[in-house]
Design a protein that fits this description.
Layout (H helix, E strand, L loop, with lengths): L1 E13 L2 E8 L21 E2 L2 H9 L6 E5 L9 H10 L3 E6 L4 H7 L5 E5 L6 H8 L5 H12 L5 E8 L6 H13 L5 E6 L8 H6 L5 H8 L10 E6 L3 E4 H8 L1
Parallel strand pairs: 2-4, 4-5, 5-6, 6-7, 7-8, 8-9
Antiparallel strand pairs: 1-2, 1-3, 9-10
């Protein structure tokens, strides 16, 4: 398996847990603003055998949870085997995906405890291609969503990285409307976009980090809406926080 990096212990990747973070390399989307751009380089990462990787995890006595992220982890051939082995070890497993491979996600679901699905934008073909620079059939992402949403034993989070100058409040409204229509009952997280290391200056000028107030203004209209799911903000000011709690502190 090709691994782009490992964090031994993190408090930021799984809410309420200290976890080991495993970054896989490669992605089938081509987002210009990608916050993990270094994982997409041709020579990125290092090959680990399953034995080596499991050995590192077994010897990490600091954590009992594993976050698998990327890149796009479902592109790794051994990913189902890895999650199955981690489950045998009694680890809490959190998995990040862009939703583009529902057949892999279906096989992963029995072995994981939490899944975070990154919705880059509203589920409309033209808009998704504008955001990801990749032709995407929205029905594939909807298939992945439905598979997870119907599986009630998995903690399900949807998140969108809010990129200033690329996304807008209308995009978020369309995502929230979709989730409400689908009776989603997990957490929807509007996440502050961050620059990655080595990002070109022209990309930094094109796509900007939203301010805390930008995120608040996007979500404020939903404070009094009767939604079947929880709304969260995740940024450098409040960390990972439910919006009613954030606005209560302001008032």
């Amino acid at each position: 398996m090709k691994i782009g990096g490992i964090i031994e212990a993190s408090r930021e990747d799984i809410p309420g847990k200290v976890c080991m973070v495993i970054f896989t390399v490669g992605c089938n989307f081509n987002c210009e603003f990608c916050h993990n751009k270094h994982l997409l380089m041709i020579d990125a990462g290092k090959e680990y055998s399953m034995k080596q990787l499991l050995g590192l995890i077994k010897n990490n006595f600091l954590v009992n949870a594993i976050s698998i992220t990327g890149g796009e982890p479902t592109l790794q051939e051994d990913i189902i085997m890895l999650c199955a082995e981690l489950k045998k070890l009694g680890k809490f497993i959190s998995f990040d995906t862009n939703g583009s491979t529902p057949s892999i996600v279906k096989k992963l679901l029995p072995h994981i405890d939490r899944i975070a699905l990154d919705l880059m934008g509203p589920l409309m073909e033209k808009r998704l291609e504008e955001i990801t620079k990749t032709p995407i059939n929205p029905n594939i992402l909807i298939e992945t969503f439905d598979l997870i949403n119907q599986n009630k034993h998995v903690n399900f989070e949807i998140r969108t990285h809010y990129v200033k100058n690329l996304l807008n409040p209308r995009d978020i409204n369309q995502i929230i409307s979709f989730l409400k229509h689908k009776s989603f009952s997990g957490n929807y997280v509007l996440q502050q976009y961050q620059y990655s290391n080595g990002l070109e200056q022209n990309i930094k000028e094109k796509f900007q980090i939203p301010e805390h107030n930008d995120l608040l203004n996007v979500l404020k209209p939903y404070l009094k809406k009767n939604l079947p799911f929880q709304l969260y903000i995740r940024d450098e000011i409040v960390g990972y926080s439910e919006i009613h709690e954030v606005f209560q502190e302001i008032l």
